[in-house]
Amino acid sequence: MNKIGFPGLDWWFEIDPTAFTLFGIKIQWYGIIIAFGMNRAILLFYRLATKKENIPGDNIFSVALLALPMAIIGARAAYVFTRWDYYGQTDFLTVINIRNGGLAIYGGIIGGFIALIIYNTFKKTRVLPMLDAV
After folding, report:
1. Stretch 40-65: mean pLDDT, rounded?
2. Could you tell me whether strands 25-28 and 11-15 are parallel, antiparallel, or unpaired per DSSP bridges?
3. Over 90: is that where the pLDDT of 106 sits?
4. What letters, b where the CB count within 10 A reaches 16 and e where it falls short, cover 10-27?
5. Prediction pTM value
6. Neighbouring residues of 16: CB distance < 8 A, sequence distance ≥ 6
């Protein structure tokens, strides 16, 4: 149980970090919140890109399908590199295991940016309008 509170209000409560278990896999609250945030970001990206930048919707979902895995890889890589004293002495499965935490937001942003550049390079489309929508 994690204790969450508001010190100025003297109000505290405990919450289990596991929201529920599905087929023996614990689904954590932080994972649900991150998935919800990614979903909302893609929908907002789609809305801004199609209405303000006149980018076809198919391009938005295609770049999102490339950017999400790249962002996760980038987030994990940034976390592992900043804690190389620990991860440099472990096996590869420990390095890629994100179930125990360890994602760095700046690595995710860099990974998503690289994916967007790669996508626009191969599709030969303009990068700046898509970056404006992002």
Report:
1. 93
2. unpaired
3. yes
4. eeeeeeeeeeeeeeeeee
5. 0.79
6. 1, 2
